[in-house]
Task: inverse folding
């Protein structure tokens, strides 16, 4: 495995503001549509084809988006794009097999925090020229922190993601619950829901699965904690620091307070979403992309006016910092026709199609003027507030192993909740594991 030095950018409110201000007034140069190079024989890539991986299961909006995007790609390039949907539980195995055996896609959707990992395995091709000109240059440079490695760009931001608390607005109204402003108020609201709806209902659902650190991280960051920091060329674990421990204790209290069941310690946000769709969850941390699937899974029982979001509150009040995530799109390094693959990425991340990708998929748009308009929408205000304080996990290729494969912090929390160890003991073990994983060569 080739390990590269990663140039990571910590996203802050000020940095985002600078990026928006710098790019918001720029006007894109007139461009010919991607791939449309007139010849006597028609579009340049007529008769050719590529394979595109989309991650997750399609719903009606996402499927319609891809159908329309592929149709325009065909019009402007003459080429076909064959879309394959990869369910989330299979993504890591599919990427691993593709990197090892050369049977990957030409273009793939990819989580922004996954870019350093797969670039380190030579799975992604550089596409540095795409964000350097035209309307793509409007995308703020600070959104390329995880995508820029050794001066080369390996993925294009497609839509930004952050999380807030999705709640049953109708239950809140029925039970006279006000939107919580502190973490203690959130637990009190969760208890009130559970008392009324039954013990099988999680008032606020505990996430202890593959994406658990979105919840744990928000609470730890709100107390001033960090997972690890880079000191020279070495990662130093910080989960034993008092600030991180305070956030960790808030996280485990979701179960120890009784508002989420011990029987569901390993559920992730997809599992929680399904229970929410079936009336078994009052609140959980997620993003607005879950709404379309919830309405489908509930078979129409849950509608827009029953659902709403608020920022996850900190212990002392105010919004917790949310994870700065997002979905990117990249060219696979083994693509048979990288030029054609790059044309697809260029088209997909043009303003027209990137804006629609974000809006259809419940993400935040990466183009500044569209993001500014979205922040004025009351329904999106909780995400704008969370995004303003967004933070990222350690920008290291090995973070996926710590976060998902080894589930270091999830196991620590589970051992505490199950009474097998103390928080100090669990976090000391987790700190050692985290350093070992992040520093491996």
Result:
């Amino acid at each position: 495995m080739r390990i590269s030095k990663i140039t990571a950018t910590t996203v802050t409110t000020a940095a985002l503001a600078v990026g928006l201000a710098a790019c918001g007034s720029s006007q894109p140069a007139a461009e010919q549509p991607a791939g449309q190079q007139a010849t006597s024989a028609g579009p340049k890539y007529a008769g050719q084809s590529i394979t595109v991986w989309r991650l997750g299961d399609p719903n009606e909006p996402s499927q319609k988006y891809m159908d329309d995007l592929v149709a325009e790609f065909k019009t402007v390039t003459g080429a076909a794009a064959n879309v394959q949907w990869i369910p989330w539980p299979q993504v890591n195995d599919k990427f691993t097999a593709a990197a090892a055996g050369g049977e990957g896609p030409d273009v793939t959707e990819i989580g922004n925090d996954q870019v350093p990992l797969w670039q380190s395995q030579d799975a992604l091709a550089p596409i540095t020229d795409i964000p350097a000109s035209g309307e793509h240059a409007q995308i703020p440079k600070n959104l390329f922190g995880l995508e820029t490695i050794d001066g080369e760009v390996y993925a294009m931001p497609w839509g930004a993601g952050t999380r807030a608390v999705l709640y049953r607005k109708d239950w809140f109204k029925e039970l006279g619950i006000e939107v919580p402003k502190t973490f203690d108020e959130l637990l009190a609201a969760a208890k009130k829901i559970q008392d009324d709806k039954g013990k099988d209902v999680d008032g606020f659902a505990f996430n202890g699965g593959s994406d658990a650190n979105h919840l744990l991280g928000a609470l730890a960051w709100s107390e001033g904690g960090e997972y690890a920091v880079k000191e020279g060329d070495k990662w130093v674990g910080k989960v034993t620091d008092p600030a991180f421990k305070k956030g960790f204790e808030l996280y485990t209290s979701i179960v120890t307070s009784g508002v989420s069941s011990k029987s569901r310690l390993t559920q992730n946000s997809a599992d929680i979403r399904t229970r929410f769709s079936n009336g078994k969850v009052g609140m959980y941390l997620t993003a607005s992309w879950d709404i379309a699937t919830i309405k489908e899974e509930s078979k129409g029982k849950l509608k827009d006016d029953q659902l709403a979001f608020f920022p996850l509150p900190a212990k002392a009040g105010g919004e917790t910092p949310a994870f700065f995530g997002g979905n990117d799109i990249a060219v696979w390094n083994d693509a048979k026709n990288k030029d054609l693959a790059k044309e697809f990425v260029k088209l997909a991340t043009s303003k027209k199609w990137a804006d629609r990708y974000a809006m259809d998929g419940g993400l935040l748009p990466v183009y500044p003027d569209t993001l500014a308009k979205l922040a004025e929408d009351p329904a999106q205000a909780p995400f704008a507030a969370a995004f303003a304080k967004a933070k990222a996990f350690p920008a290291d290729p090995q973070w996926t192993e710590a976060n998902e494969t080894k589930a270091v912090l999830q196991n620590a929390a589970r051992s505490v909740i199950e009474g097998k160890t103390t928080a100090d003991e669990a976090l000391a073990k987790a700190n050692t594991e985290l350093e070992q994983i992040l520093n491996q060569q």
The longest helix spans residues 60-77. The chain is about 40% helix and 15% strand.
